[in-house]
Design goal:
Length: 408
Amino acid sequence: MKLKKITASLVAATMFASNPVFAQAGSKVSGDVVKIGVLTDLSSTYSDLAGPGAVIAAKMAIADFSKDGTVLGKKIELVSADHQNKADIAANKAREWYDKDGVDVIVELVSTNVALAVMEVAEQKNKITLVSGAASLPITNEKCTANNVHWTYDTYALSNGTGKAVVKQGKKNWYFITADYAFGAALEKDATNVVTANGGKVLGTSKHPFPNSDFSSYLLKAQASGADVVALANAGQDTINTVKQAAEFGINKKQTVVPLLMFITDVHSLGLNAAQGMYLTEGFYWDKDDKTRAFSKRFILQHKRMPSMVQAGVYSSVLAYLSAVQKAGTDDTQAVMKALKSTNIDDGLFKGKIRADGKFEHDMYLLEVKKPSESTSPWDYYHVRAVIPAAEATQPLSLSRCKLVTNK
């Protein structure tokens, strides 16, 4: 365990070594403390894939960065709160943290409405946001900000992973069951673009409230459509409930149910009997290699569950943020963002670079859920069917609608 911790600390210390030295600014730290806020869903639809596990991941990153919990000789503090997936609650908490509590950066931010609300506050207050849980492409397009990084995944990656793979299997006619808020709309739009570009057709859409528990009416419409694919543009507990109810209706016997966003925590809740054969796209899988396994075995000791890609993204983003503060010699927002955007990141979980639009560009993975007979140990859930290179998993900058992108 000690060797693994030392290795992680070395990663943090050397992450910025190949880049130009930034002005040290006299090691200036506002309030003599570097304060990180984890604003997440601690009690609702997304609490399993983010929630308490995201807080644990942030604590692990701090511990791996610094044995004594300091950066530039100043204490690192962590605070956390439950945004309840409500934009107004999230925005109010962000203002309180930034104005009264001296928080420098807010991380995680699962659900698009929350992320966009907090990003707006951060832009007004000249503070930083690092989004791991939300997915919508507008976060790095028309809603982009100079102080934000979209860390783990987005709807473009999901669509060009899972969506493209399923269409190429010859399943051309699609019906969407979509969460009726910004994330669902973005995922449906991006998946529709992939389906039609590859010769497919969308036969219809049903939009459901977020969150929701009864999907029967939407599933019956999908069944009646005769579509090859019933595509789920939702997430978390909504996805779990939809998949379970689709099985009860026998929809999966004649149609293919395709969750466009599914996490390992969802597969765990469903069980391999229900989830086997499903394709999904993720930015992290605990069993990919020795480094991901080492991190994940430490994580499960504390959380009793393997990390989702959101939780892994929180670890990665907090580690990178602290390394940027160290390199910049200050927690000043512009200096830290300059350090982040000028650095190749390779922390053992994610490898890539932050673009001008704030997108952390890295490889994604096309996964297939194993049959129960193929799983040889707890949480052994996936076949890695393909690595989606970073350039293919990320919208080209030439298509960007971000105000920060000048090379259009």
